[in-house]
C-alpha cells in the first residue's frame, strides 16, 4: 500500500508540473506570466537586417524602420486560457482575447492599425496569427516540459519583404 501512495503522489506531482497542461476536455493549455530572457533570445535587430538585406537602397531603410517599430521584443507575456478562448497580454498593452477555434476576430493595436487575429492549437503549440493588409505575423508558443520556459517563434511575411522575418524569443517564469 505504501508503494501505491508514493507512486500516486509522484504521478500527481509530475502532472502538476507538466509543461503543456491539458484541460478536462483533453485540449492543451498554457497558463502563466513569463519574463523575457534576453541572453537566450535571438537578436531581433540582426533578424530584421537579414530580412531586409536583399532590398534596394530606397526600400530597405523604410522596411527596417517599420519592422523595428512593430517587432520590439516583449518584456513580459501573460497567457490565460478558458475552455473556449485564450487571452495573451504583452507588457502593459491591450490584451488579445481570441477564440481557440481559429476563428479570426478584429483587433486594434494601440497605434490604430486593425488586424484579423486568430489563435488555435497545432499539436502542443499555440499559434496566434495577426493578418493585416500588407502581411501577417505568426507567434508560435511552445512551453517546456517543466512549464517554466515559454518559447515564442515569430514569423513575419509580406510581399513587400525580400524574405520573411524569423526570430525566437525565450521567456521564463519569474
Kindly list the characteristics that best describe this protein.
41% strand; 3 helices; disordered N terminus; 174 residues; alpha+beta; ten-stranded antiparallel sheet; 12 strands; two-stranded antiparallel ribbon
Q: Cα-atom Rg, whole angstroms?
A: 19 Å
Low-confidence stretches: 1-19
Helices and strands, in N-to-C order? HEEEHHEEEEEEEEE
The helix count comes to 3
Indicate the overall shape: globular
Q: What do the pLDDT scores average to?
A: 87
N/C terminus separation: 38 Å
Major β-sheet annotation: 10 strands, antiparallel
* Strand content bin: 35-45%
Spatial arrangement of strands, main beta sheet? 6-5-4-3-12-11-10-9-8-7
Percent helix, as a range, is 10-25%
**Structural class estimated from helices and strands:** alpha+beta
List how many beta strands DSSP finds: 12
Description of the molecule:
The structure is a single chain. Helix content is 21%, strand content 41%. It has helices at 2-17, 44-52, 59-70, and strands at residues 21-22, 28-29, 32-36, 76-81, 85-90, 96-99, 105-108, 114-122, 125-132, 135-143, 149-157, 165-172. The strands form two sheets. A ten-stranded antiparallel sheet has the order 6-5-4-3-12-11-10-9-8-7, with helices on one face. A two-stranded antiparallel ribbon has the order 1-2. A hairpin with a 7-residue loop joins β11 and β12 (165-172). It starts with a helix and ends with a strand. The relative contact order is 0.19. Residues 1-19 have low confidence and may be disordered.
Amino acid at each position: 500500500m505504501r508503494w501505491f501512495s508514493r507512486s500516486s503522489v509522484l504521478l500527481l506531482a509530475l502532472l502538476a508540473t507538466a509543461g503543456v497542461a491539458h484541460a478536462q476536455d483533453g485540449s492543451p493549455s498554457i497558463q502563466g506570466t513569463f519574463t523575457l530572457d534576453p541572453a537566450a533570445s535571438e537578436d531581433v535587430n540582426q533578424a530584421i537586417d537579414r530580412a531586409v538585406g536583399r532590398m534596394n537602397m530606397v526600400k530597405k531603410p523604410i522596411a527596417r524602420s517599420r519592422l523595428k517599430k512593430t517587432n520590439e521584443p516583449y518584456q513580459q507575456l501573460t497567457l490565460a486560457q478558458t475552455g473556449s478562448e485564450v487571452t495573451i497580454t504583452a507588457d502593459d498593452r491591450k490584451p488579445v482575447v481570441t477564440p481557440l477555434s481559429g476563428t479570426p476576430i478584429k483587433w486594434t493595436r494601440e497605434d490604430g492599425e486593425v488586424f484579423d487575429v486568430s489563435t488555435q492549437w497545432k499539436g502542443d503549440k499555440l499559434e496566434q496569427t495577426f493578418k493585416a493588409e500588407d502581411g501577417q505575423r505568426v507567434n508560435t508558443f511552445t512551453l517546456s516540459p517543466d512549464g517554466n520556459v515559454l518559447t515564442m517563434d515569430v514569423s513575419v511575411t509580406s510581399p513587400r519583404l525580400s524574405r520573411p522575418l524569423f526570430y525566437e524569443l525565450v521567456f521564463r517564469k519569474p
